[in-house]
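Revision sheet: structure tokens.
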Amino acid sequence: MPEDSPAKFAIEPFDKKNHDRTAFSCEHEALNTYIKRQASQDIKKHVAAVFVLTPDGKTIAGYYTLSQYAVDSSSVPEETMRILGLPKYKEMPATLLGRLARSLTFKGQRVGELLLMSALKQALDHSRRIASMAVVVDAKDDPAKTFYKKYGFLELPDHLNRLFLPMKTVEQMFGV
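Predicted:
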């Protein structure tokens, strides 16, 4: 996490008994609905791991989800495949950053960046045990796409809002 980030936040696995999901509100209704109605089911069914950023162990300042994913290698530009030194497999293992949302209450406090850095660090740590060549995200809209591109995410030309960040780049971000 950035050195000047507020120390008051903690990242925890989502627990519907401890975290107040009813009060969560962000710019996208689908993201509000997810944390309120679907997140605990996805955890139970092993479809997604859900993590929350909380200042007090109860309030959800933001959240993100991570899942396993496979990228069709034909959707990655050949030049990128070559630069990354990736083999020409039909599918490449990746980590899906399925959702990332910041509560409106915490707007302007760099919560989005804290969530993203936590998700990337989790993905990096996980990639050491189960291979993942990149983190993939589907940006909800143009501001989200701009946000991810600021951190080095690259567009997948065949998918309008899908971006990816090579794990080699994530390693560099964390000095590995």
